[in-house]
Amino acid sequence: MVGSARRLRLGTRGSRLALVQSELVADRLRAAGYEVDLVPIVTEGDVRPVDMSPGEGVFVAAIARALLNGEVDVAVHSAKDVPLVEEPGLVIGAYPERADPRDVLITKSGRASLESLAQGAVVGTDSPRRTGFLLAARPDLKVVPLHGNVETRLRRLDEGAADAVVLAAAGIDRLGQPESTGWGDRSGLMSAWILRWWRPRRARARWPSRCAGPMYVSSRLFRGSTTMTSGWRSRPSARC
After folding, report:
1. CA dihedral 123, 138, 78, 48 (to 10 degrees)
2. CA distance 199 to 26
3. What is the CATH number of domain 7-98+186-196?
4. Residue 6 contacts residue 33 (beta carbons within 8 Å)
5. What ranges do the domains of the chain cover?
6. CA dist., res. 24 & res. 19, Å (int)
7. Is 130 exposed, middle or buried (0-12, 13-18, 19+ CB in 10 A)?
8. Could you tell me which residues are beta bridge partners of residue 219?
9. Catalytic residue among 37, 46, 51, 81
10. What is the pLDDT, as a whole number, of residue 203?
């Protein structure tokens, strides 16, 4: 059933965080006079084995197909998971206001910091960027692959899979979860994908990393001028 001019089907992943983020966009659309129905979509990334590293775009490919097939009218997703090479026929149509772009370190005690973690502590993350900069600051740490939605990673922390995990501050804030300390990149930024960037995205496209390289780009606009900061950790990584 094709959405009407004032009724939109909004595609989203089905995790609690994805639904919370999509509702933020849906509320803005409703305030503009649209009726919005959320359509949860299961992606390849949602059904992979718990310790299998993803490929680029595994969290958005199914959503892109739903848009192209006319199953939804618009989609919302965290910008960090959207591939740098744009999908033909689709365009990122809008960005809501950015939330906290930093990462946070969460420990079982809630009191440890990156500096005070024990020698050789195990830190869980599936991100090459986080891995690279963790090891740049603390080469003694053991970084292990740990993925899943926020609740899954926090549960695995409680179960002893790691001494600490690194997550996006924006996701923790949106879910109302406790946090510890942190640093950032494209986390905190959502995008609304529609049929048919922003300078940090273009800058990342010029670096040889794609999603498999430990780098970050941060951009700030102040009084008409843009200041950009970028960093690169030259450490080989096959994870995405």
Report:
1. -40
2. 26
3. 3.40.190.10
4. yes
5. 7-98+186-196, 103-175
6. 9
7. buried
8. 228
9. 81
10. 47
Asked if 81 is an active-site residue, the reply is yes
Q: Are 125 and 185 in contact (CB under 8 A)?
A: no
As a whole number of angstroms, the distance between CA 80 and CA 57 comes to: 10
Identical fold, 7-98+186-196 and 103-175? yes
pLDDT band, residue 212 (cuts 50/70/90): low
* H-state helical runs in 49-167: 61-68, 128-137, 150-158
Return d(Cα 55, Cα 52) in angstroms, integer.
10
Q: Are 213 and 232 in contact (CB under 8 A)?
A: yes
Q: What was the pLDDT predicted at 208?
A: 47
- The confidence band for 4, taking pLDDT boundaries of 50, 70 and 90, is low
CATH number 3.40.190.10 is the correct assignment for the domain at 103-175: yes
Helix (H) or strand (E) holding 23: helix 16-31
